[in-house]
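Hi R.,

Here's the chain you asked about this morning:
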Amino acid sequence: MVNNDIRVFTGNANPDLARKICDHLQMPLGQAVVGTFTDGEIRVEIGENVRGRDVFLIQPTCPPANHHLMELLIMIDAVKRASARRITAVIPYFGYARQDRKVHPRVPITAKLVADLLVTAGAQRILTMDLHVGQIQGFFNIPVDNLYASPIMMPFIRENFTNDLTIVSPDAGGVPRARAYAKRLTATLGLIDKRRDAPGKAKALNLIGDVLGKEVVILDDIVDTAGTLTQAANVIMGHGALNVNACCTHAVLSGPAVERLRESSLKSLVVTDTIPLKDEAQHCPKIIQLSVAHIFARAIMNIHREDSISSLFEIQF
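And here is the predicted structure, written out as tokens:
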């Protein structure tokens, strides 16, 4: 049980995860009204005293990303003006992370813009999970703790995928993560060579690595429209794999994603609850959701007590 100096609040992005985190912390979720006025403007009212308290605001910026981001910014401003001692934005899924560099002339670096907005609003620390690229931590001039889903993903893989195993990254950017998993699971490593023709559209071209007769796990941080994932699964099965599964931390699952998963050669898709599953996804038999609430609860408790959370940054069992 944490002491009276801590308060945890949430917006409307993922209240179920916030309640699970509070259950692990053995404390109630803070009282707050987060809604809209009749014209659609966001209304926030914190329902309890936060003066001098250590405040944690749990809000992934999942779809609708703009609305949930504005909720978070306004909540930060509300507790700042109510004299909170420290404000930590707990963002299990950090939206806009894929816009982290200029890939063409005259395009924004939106991840940096969002970082600036959070700091300007009054956030003093960021707690997130499996950033799309770790370099985004450098966009902030405040401490950023980037947790990993590996403490739940690795045991699941080890217990459920027992045949000769290959970990496959769906692109070059995910190779360090896939290599770390493969090393600890004593598995071989594979890579999908792909070309992205437009945002949200990618064509899987070739498989690097041997998957013949093996059980394969595709490892990624985000599954959005599932186009890359399902194409990668088809390529892998075409190279003689025994079966193909996928583990992705953030289940955005926009557009035709769920239908693509149903019709794909994927045997299963394992995700976490950083983003709440849509109704359609909840009824898809291929999707398995694991909770990361205990990981965030441990991080929140250690931050509050000024203890180290370095063990949570390591990919581990």
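One quick note: The longest helix spans residues 65-81.

Cheers,
M.
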